[in-house]
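Exercise: predict the fold of this chain.
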Amino acid sequence: MQRDSGLAPIDPPRAWFLVLGSFPSRRSLELGQYYGHRRNHFWELMGMLTGRPMPAGYELRLQRLAEAGIAVWDLVASCSREGSLDRDILDELPNPVGDFVAGRPGIAGIALNGGKAAEIFRMRVAPTLGRGPLAIGEIMEWRPPGTRSRSVLVSRMPSTSPVPTRGFKSAADKAPGWLSFYGAVMNRI
């Protein structure tokens, strides 16, 4: 089984909203682009959050995220995995997400893109949030290590994966949760 490394973060200078995924799909790794599978709902949902449809070109999409203050990264730096499914991630090495957030005082909210991202975040980054799984849409406050009075809102979002789940088949099904959390964080800054 092949060991893969993930992508560098999308890290705009004035980021206030961070989307954390688990690990890029095989297609994303081939392209060197986040959410590169054409059926993934990520870019459509980001268009809904920013109030403007995302352009087709990746560089223009990155520019739109930067204008909106949205950063993107993954919790896993490298892992072994056959295919693209989160459940097949093995031997993961985490990215230094806690340090990343602590070093960016503007980040006020973290959207965990799916169940695997929420699981890894709780186990590897924020064990102080408890052991049980985060429910979709549940919002918690987290104090990044090394920060004194700063807290960040964290919520598990419906996965942007094109694989349908109970209650979340399309971007339209997922949009209310994403929009609600984005609005809650925006009201905080």
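Check your answer against the key: Strands lie at 3-5, 17-21, 70-74, 76-80, 90-94, 109-113, 139-142, 152-157.
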